[in-house]
Amino acid sequence: MQSSENKGIQGKVFVVTGGLGFVGAALCLELLRRGATEVRAFDLRLSSPFSHALHKKGVRCIQGDVVRKEDVERALRGADCVFHLAAFGMSGKEMLRIGRVDEVNITGTRHVLDACLDFGITRLVYCSTYNVVFAGQPIVNGDETLPYFPIDEHAVDSYGRSKSIAEQLVLKNNNNSGKNKKRLYTCAVRPAAIYGPGEDRHLPRIISMAKLGLLFFRIGDHNVKSDWVFVDNLVLALILASMGLLDDNDEGKEKEKGNKLPKAAGQAYFISDGLPVNTFEFIEPLLTGLDYQLPRRWLSVDLALVIAKISWVVYTVLLLCPPWLLNWRWLPQPFILPAEVHKVGVTHYFSCLKAKEEIGYVPKVSSKEGMASTISYWQERKRMTLDGPTIYPWLFSVMGMIGIFAAAFLSDEFGIVFLLRAIHLFVFRTMWMVRLVFVLAVAAHVSEAIYAWRLAKRVDPSNARGWFWQTLALGYFSLRFLLKRAEQGS
After folding, report:
1. 252 pLDDT exceeds 80?
2. 159 in catalytic set
3. Residue 160 near residue 132 (C-beta atoms within 8 A)
4. How many angstroms separate the Cα of 68 from the Cα of each of 52, 109, 239, 320?
5. Residue among 126, 130, 159, 292 flagged as catalytic
6. What's the predicted TM-score (pTM) here?
7. Mean pLDDT across the stretch 244-266?
8. What is the mean pLDDT of residues 125-148?
């Protein structure tokens, strides 16, 4: 007998587009846990950090692109319910690839809708975003009665614009039928910023910048608040939304002709942990737990937007370069873009009351519990990877060694060698002493690198080679991190 918590799941076939992603993989595993007959993870990637767990549990992974109609049809044929999570351009430099953003988020959604109608699939849950109603204006405890932000005013957020168009397409097709006359019921879930162990968009970028010492300021002020949602809470909301599309629900919304629609049909729901918080205060425990620091300085939104727009212009120009000149995949992420300034510097949070009343959504994991598990995950990940200093010791050590080598051995004909030699002679008095200092510095780096390799073979063998090369370049700036790891492991 089917339990109420697994209603509409047991014995059914599900497709999750973007199924190899962070949320998609968690959703696939939860659907199997609840008794789904078959779960298909449809994704552009052949593999991801979550692939092993999906294969192990029996998820069928299908490689394809939502932009290709035939790929979508191949993945969706025979399904009972589709969760459309595949998207592009949420953050960073991908936001600037407007053509690809529109292809995936708009054209891809059209293909999913067409396949659902053609194959008689009865339920489609669309994973949308807060940004369909938010584009930099303050919103306090907003709800689903808020109108869509005007499409032509999404000037700096191609992702929000495309997701808004796609959501409206999905909801417009609610209660439509295809060739076989089966009704397709649709709804949209609008999650807040997503976090949790394994999240691969927001937190890795923040942590990388903190590790390099490139978080120079906080944006806005401490009164600015926004929502976050833990991955397990979002997965729960998605599943509850799919249950709310079952056409045998006792409770429904009256249709004009008198028959009832499923209670979630044609609806959109804001989803979060239900605890709005300042973004920088929210991530501070995570960075502190990793021995990184957030700056204490606050930067106004207006000034941050100036910096972000400069970054936007520079990266827009760079992304126009031909692939043979610049491969965008290797281009570092920009420090921040205008849409991201709005997300962290302007208050916007929403009520989950409608989701609670209509589909029974109540967060099962508190923000405190969710962040604790996220911190544990990142602490373990840090222990398994090569640690090191910020970018400033790298610049000091590498440029210093290059400078003293140039002063000691290169001819004055090479660029600024004359100036470098004059500076070194002022400090060390003679060329003999300059050369001796360089030799001693190289000897120190080599000996420290050998020691680091031997120590790492004992305390961190998987990264021993990395410790050797990093310490060879940085000397004690690197070695001190290994010594700390050895001390913690003793």
Report:
1. no
2. yes
3. yes
4. 26, 11, 27, 24
5. 159
6. 0.91
7. 70
8. 96
